[in-house]
Amino acid sequence: MDIREIQNLIKFVAKSGATEVKLEMDDFKITIKTTEAGAAETTYIQQMPMQAMPQVAAPVAPVAAPVAPAPVAPAADENSKYITVKSPMIGTFYRKPSPDKPMFVEVGSTISKGDVVCVIEAMKLFNEIEAEVSGKIVKILVDDASPVEFDQPLFLVDPS
Q: Between 44 and 123, where is the model more confident?
């Protein structure tokens, strides 16, 4: 398969609306992933070796008996009455607007809808995160100056 055929395949997959296509032939493997907009996002081409090497089984270590996990259900029930404030983006979480200023909120702080509870830095931009609910901060789930992921819980709020 030459480069022109691969480019035509990418265009075809983008127009078809498929999100992922994998094609395996004798001497290579192609994976094409597309975005919702229909444009091809990533193409992986892996050349397969012509002769297969003999495989040797790796020695297997004995597995220890599993340890019984601690009960998690009571903690989940305890936190179910609280509302979770989640990160709307990926970035670095800060509890203060600047190093010389006080924290936005502490455990026990009462917040109203629209109050700024933290700042998340993403690509050198500091984004103020506002509370979507009113209530009392029960727990802060992230340390200051820590990286956070999209939809990661930041705070637990008691709405009562």
A: 123
